[in-house]
Amino acid sequence: MRSPIRLLLVDDHAFFRSGLRAILAEFDTVEVVGEAANGEAAIPLIERRRPDVVIMDLNMPGASGAEATRQIRQLSPRTEVVMLTVSAAEDDIVEALEAGAAGYLLKDAQGDEILRAVTAAAHGGSVLTPAVARTVVERARRMRAGGVAPDALAELSERERDVLHLLAEGKDNAEIAAELFVSVATVKHDVSTLLAKLGASNRLQAAVKAVRSGLL
């Protein structure tokens, strides 16, 4: 049996941390190994608790969640960070993702959404809510730079292009499979293949590259 994903919760509101811990306790695939009230307090806990994933608020006293994420990624590259915040501002989203966050969720996310984001981050993926994904893609559309070579785009199959369009909308593998009438395993294979073809490290990066190339 696989060990639970080790989580560290970072939020300056103790009441929110308590509620989040209670929600996560419903899932046996994750384990909360620590809490911190701000980014500075989280840093020493990273080495002591060695979490797989940090669930981080963005706006906290002292160092922002983005700055803490930057430090965590430098200190422990194997520890991923998922932002859980109230801010849907474009600049906040982009700053967090550029700092190295593997996911960005709003605080109205349901427990199963948070679990999906944490699981994806722990396994090298990324999850954004559809609204956040659209924000990032629209920003990329306005900044046509850093795209993909035309021959790489030409290598994508028709279904891989369909998958790319849907993941740019923030859809997960199950949603993509349902829309394209294929299996989840097929979608996983298609996503893996298109990431390799586009030279992207995750789903979001693939979407951004495609947008900047004019494909989306």
Describe this structure in words.
The chain folds into 2 domains: 124 residues, Rossmann fold, CATH 3.40.50.2300; 67 residues, Orthogonal Bundle (Arc Repressor Mutant, subunit A). 54% of the residues lie in helices and 13% in strands. It has 11 helices and 6 strands. Helix 5 links the parallel strand 5 and strand 6.
Can you describe this structure in just a few lines?
The protein has 216 residues and is α/β, with parallel strands linked by helices. Helices cover 54% and strands 13% of the residues.
How many domain modules? Answer: 2
CATH superfamily of the largest domain: Response regulator
CATH architecture of the largest domain: 3-Layer(aba) Sandwich
Largest sheet descriptor = 6 strands, parallel
Detail the poorly predicted runs. none
Query: What top-tier CATH class of the largest domain fits best?
Result: Alpha Beta
The level of helicity is: 40-55%
The SSE string, one letter per element, is EHEHEHEHEHEHHHHHH
CATH topology of the largest domain, by name, is Rossmann fold
* Count of individual beta strands: 6
Shape estimate: globular
Classify the beta-strand content into a percent band. 5-15%
Judged by helices, strands and strand pairing, the structural class is alpha/beta
SS field, number of helical segments:
11
- Our measurement of the CA-to-CA distance between the termini, rounded to an integer number of angstroms, reads 41 Å
Strand order of the largest sheet: 2-1-3-4-5-6
Radius of gyration: 17 Å
Could you tell me the mean pLDDT?
85
